[in-house]
Amino acid sequence: MSTDTPSGGEAPARPAASPALAPTTSLAPAGSAPGSAPAPTVVSPARPAASLASAGSAPAVTALAGGVGAARMLAGLAAVLGQPSIAAVINTGDDTVLHGLHVSPDIDTVTYTLAGVSNREMGWGLAGETWTVMEALGSFDGVAGRSLTWFSLGDKDLATHLYRTGRLAEGATLSQVTADVAQRFGVGAQLLPMSDDRVETRVTLRDGHEAYGHEAYGHEAYGHEAYGHEAYGHEAQTKGQPARMPAGSPAGAVVSFQEYFVGLAHAVPVAAVDFAGIEAARPAPGVIEAVETADLLVICPSNPVVSIGPVLGVPGVAQAVTRRRETTVAVSPIIAGRALKGPADHMLAELGYEPTAAGVAEMWAPYAATIVIDNADAALAGRIETLGVRCVVAPSVMSGPAEAAKLAEAVLGVAP
Ligand code: GDP
Ligand code: CA
């Protein structure tokens, strides 16, 4: 197998359904925002970002985070403020069990990125990874009657999953393990899973649609070269489908997030997304405090539905964030109608949201008084402000650490 891609062919070893799997919450479209529209704003920091640096134990910034988009934003914030000033509340709806190992993709992406050891080319995993275990595991495909390697886990990355799984089996919480892993990687930011309780993002595939190809949602404007991530393309995400996926059109099937994202290369239309177990989930220790005590909240440029949606869906979190609306800044992951990576653009459209920065602003209007959108979307600023959301226009493609830090300065500079 190639050493740089998830590859394909079998169903992941899904965790046993939680005892009371029934409770699910679908992401509901946001209502309209309160307040009137202030004049459009172009980035002009109101005060030095450094003044936000936290003096005490409260974080200067608490960020609601998914994976890659969030990790870059956090790295930018960390470059400006220092890691100890930052807390992140991270999505765990993507967590999955593979080969009996508990994998927390978004937590790991944030951890590895803040540690400076992420694999920027692949967009996931560790730099300098080797694949000996996956190659050996592939030799079991024949006796297993299915591919065991549709979801690649690198050798070094596996150590993280082994550690996490072992500790969880001993009775540690995901919060404790996440803090341990952060410590081992020298991450100074406070990394909090959204919940220690199991929440499982599930995707219902749309009826009557064949899987579509790359072209339908090509990313010309922000193509691979511009972003510098070849492996972000759909082909790179998969070499086959989990075996339990029906051949051909899987319309109507309910699949786990990873089956959709990796197994199907997120190239099939979505009818619904729900978060199994979320109604019974409790915010992890420190989550509400981090939201309540930070000087500034940031909603990272992550997939609004499947990355930020679960975080806000944990009972109590949305309410706590709403109370902080005036000091919450969202950053749009949609630029010129496109996601830089992943399915956010077409997923928004499929679920009835407008797949633009204005659509994102509408979703976050109840939670964030300010949104940062890309220069490419400057024309949407007036419309966004009619939603009662202050709109800041700034370069928002974090193609490298310098660009990420610059965006972080824009985010920090607009703090009221
Ligand atoms: P995942 O969990 O790894 O898929 O990552 P996230 O949900 O955190 O992030 C995916 C989203 O991040 C996509 O919608 C991208 O458009 C967005 N994203 C990635 N990099 C950037 C960036 O540099 N700037 C902005 N504005 N959005 C980004
Ligand atoms: Ca994710």
Short description:
By secondary structure, this protein is an alpha/beta fold. It has a domain at 19-94 and 198-230 and 241-413: Rossmann fold (3-Layer(aba) Sandwich), CATH 3.40.50. Helix content is 32%, strand content 14%.
Task: Provide key terms for this protein.
alpha/beta; Rossmann fold; binds guanosine-5'-diphosphate; binds calcium ion; 416 residues; 32% helix; 14% strand; eight-stranded parallel β-sheet; 15 strands; three-stranded antiparallel β-sheet; 16 helices; disordered N terminus
Describe the structure.
This protein has a domain at 19-94 and 198-230 and 241-413: Rossmann fold (3-Layer(aba) Sandwich), CATH 3.40.50.10680. Helix 1 (68-81) packs across helix 16 (401-413) and helix 5 (155-169) runs antiparallel to helix 6. The termini are far apart. The chain has helices at 68-81, 105-114, 132-138, 141-144, 155-169, 174-184, 224-227, 234-237, 257-263, 287-293, 304-313, 317-323, 344-350, 357-364, 381-385, 401-413; strands spanning 41-42, 61-65, 86-90, 96-98, 101-103, 190-193, 200-205, 254-256, 270-276, 296-299, 328-331, 334-335, 338-339, 370-374, 390-394. The protein is globular and about 60 Å long. It has an 8-stranded parallel β-sheet with strand order 1-15-14-11-10-2-3-6, with helices on both faces. The chain is an alpha/beta fold. Strand 14 (370-374), helix 15 (381-385) and strand 15 (390-394) form a beta-alpha-beta unit. The longest helix is centred in the middle third of the chain and has 15 residues, at 155-169. The structure holds guanosine-5'-diphosphate (GDP) and calcium ion (CA). Residues 66-67, 94, 105-106, 307 line the site of calcium ion.
